[in-house]
Every structure is written in structure tokens, then in C-alpha cells.
Design brief:
- The chain is of the alpha/beta class.
- It has one domain: Alpha/Beta hydrolase fold, catalytic domain (Rossmann fold, 3-Layer(aba) Sandwich).
- An eight-stranded mixed β-sheet has the order 1-2-4-3-5-6-7-8, sandwiched between helices.
- The C terminus is likely disordered.
């Protein structure tokens, strides 16, 4: 196994000492400290925040709940395809503000119109409320972009990291049998795809690597509150057919979710779905949220996403 990146190892050593102190003092996991932890880590370690010519907030109507979104336009005078970004955070943390620098960087790298979704979070809003928000945005995005005067092509990629990757893959599974599925590409960044904690890497990397097995279990308990069938809700256990969009999967060697991403890749390829897989063997889960420690690797990940999205879904050509 490739050694953990040295800068990440030093940072992780300090983090694990802090976590041990908190546990010794009797600290209990809460939505508040989950949100603070992700927000503080991202704000501290993603300090490059590209300026873009247009960033505007909007509400996507059409469902029971108007969903806030933030639109990042790297070139307002040009017509471009669209990338919907569904943030991570275990369905409990994260949001537009936390992921602002990441979405800016994705828009700048890809030259796509990036739309970040402020879906509702557990435990206050458990499954399937956040998922319904994301589906509402997929269904009603074009009128919102029209209202804001955006120049776009109605070609949609959906990207998501961690829990946002789970929601992305769930959406594409839900929509795959439609005559014209609205999602043309999906990007899954160290996604969780199995809510049953069944894959070996969950147990092999159970503690000490930022995202720990018991913390994952806690996240799932916040999300599923009505005795739902967690296996049935897992994208890996949903029907996987040729109706799914072409896919890019990004995994990390020290991420406990990595085996789920690899299994999903294999299932897609077996079903005849075009799938690319980029693996970063020396990195942790959530490495985009700690970019200052692994600048080169994050640049490589953004380039992989940009290259993937530059392909025309409809005619197979390159370019914007």
C-alpha cells in the first residue's frame, strides 16, 4: 500500500491528538460540531479562492420547498454546459458557503456554469428531504437559469463528493429509465454508495484516517430516522443499467469508502456504462477540503473533472 502523503500524515497526527482529547473530555457527536468541523477545515485549508466574473444566488422553485442555489459563471458572454454540485458532509454538514471555494475552482477549471445546491440537512430534515431538494433542482433548473439571464446549453453534469456523491448516484439511478434522462454525466468524488457498512475498506480503515467507521454510522443514523431499508437506499444496490450516464469516479487510498467506489465502477462497466476511475493512493477522504496540503493532487483532480466534462455528451466531440 502506498504511504500516506507526508503533509497529510503530519496534519492527521495533530488532528488525532485533538480528537483523543475531546473524547477523553466526554465530547458527544452533534450536528453542530460536525458542521463546525467541516467548515473550519475547509476555510483553513482551501485558501485559494478564484475570482469569477459572475456569482449569483437564486431559488429553484417547483417543489414543496424552494431550494437555494449559488450560480458560478466563469464566462458570462459564452454559452456553456452546466454542472450541478451536491456537497458532501454526511448529509448533516456542509453547504453553499463551506463549498464556495471548491465550486469556484471547479467553475474556473472546467469553464462550466456550476450550480451549488443548499439542500436541507439531517437530523432536522432526514431522508429523503435533502434528496428531494436535489431532484427538484434537477427538474426545474433551466427556468431558474433563464430567469438569471445565464447563457447555457441544456446539458447537465452532476458532481458530488462523499454524501453528495451518494445523492448524485441515487438521482441518476432514479432517473435512468426516463426517455430523455436529464443528467448526462455524473462525477462521484470519494462517494459513499453503500449505507450498510459492508465493504472491507470501511473496517480496514475504521479509525485514525479522518472519516471513521463509527462517525459514518452516526451520520447514517442522523439521515435515516424512520427505519428505512438502508440497503435499498444504497446506490450500489439499485438497478445499474445502460441508462446511467457516463461516469467519473475519484477515490483515495486512505478513504474508508474507496471499496464502494471501486465496486460501483465495476458494476457500471459490467452494465456497459462508460466509466473512468481516478485513484489517488496517498490521499485521505475529503482531500479537496484540505487543498493547501496537497495542492498538486487537487489540481490533478480538478483537471480530470474538467477534461471529463469537456466531452460533448451528445456527439462525442471535444470542446466547449
Amino acid at each position: 500500500m502506498t504511504s500516506l502523503n507526508a503533509q497529510l500524515e503530519d496534519w492527521l497526527l495533530r488532528l488525532n491528538r485533538l480528537v483523543a482529547q475531546q473524547r477523553a473530555q466526554g465530547s458527544t457527536p452533534t450536528a453542530v460540531n460536525a458542521r463546525e468541523g467541516l467548515a473550519n477545515m475547509t476555510a483553513t485549508l482551501v485558501t485559494d479562492r478564484p475570482e469569477l466574473p459572475r456569482v449569483v444566488d437564486a431559488l429553484v422553485e417547483g417543489g414543496d420547498y424552494p431550494v437555494p442555489v449559488r450560480i458560478y459563471d466563469p464566462s458570462p458572454e459564452q454559452t456553456k454546459s452546466v454542472c450541478l454540485y451536491i456537497h458532501g458532509g454526511g448529509h448533516t454538514a456542509g453547504g453553499i458557503t463551506v463549498y464556495d471555494p471548491i465550486c469556484r475552482k471547479l467553475a474556473a477549471a472546467s469553464q462550466r456554469l456550476v450550480v451549488s445546491v443548499e439542500y436541507r440537512l439531517a437530523p432536522e430534515c432526514p431522508y429523503p428531504m435533502g434528496l428531494e431538494d436535489c431532484l427538484n433542482v434537477v427538474r426545474h433548473l433551466w427556468p431558474t437559469l433563464d430567469e438569471k439571464g445565464c447563457r447555457y446549453r441544456p446539458e447537465l453534469a452532476v458532481a458530488g463528493d462523499s454524501g453528495g456523491g451518494a445523492m448524485t448516484a441515487t438521482l441518476t439511478a432514479m432517473l435512468q429509465d426516463e426517455p430523455e434522462p436529464p443528467i448526462h454525466q455524473q462525477i462521484l468524488i470519494y462517494p459513499n454508495l453503500d449505507y450498510t457498512l459492508s465493504f472491507p475498506s470501511i473496517h480496514e480503515l475504521a479509525s485514525g484516517y479522518l472519516l471513521e467507521r463509527e462517525r459514518i454510522r452516526w451520520y447514517y443514523d442522523q439521515y435515516f430516522q424512520q427505519g428505512e431499508d438502508r440497503a435499498a437506499a444504497s446506490p450500489l444496490r439499485m438497478p445499474i443499467t445502460r441508462g446511467l450516464p457516463e461516469t467519473l469516479i475519484i477515490t483515495a487510498g486512505y478513504c474508508p469508502l474507496k471499496d464502494e467506489g471501486i465496486a460501483y465502477r465495476d458494476a457500471l462497466q459490467q452494465a456497459g456504462v462508460s466509466c473512468e476511475h481516478r485513484h489517488f493512493p496517498a490521499l485521505l477522504h475529503a482531500f479537496l477540503n484540505m487543498e493547501d496540503l496537497v495542492v498538486g493532487e487537487c489540481a490533478e483532480a480538478y483537471l480530470a473533472m474538467a477534461d471529463f466534462m469537456r466531452r460533448s455528451v451528445r456527439d462525442g466531440s471535444e470542446g466547449l
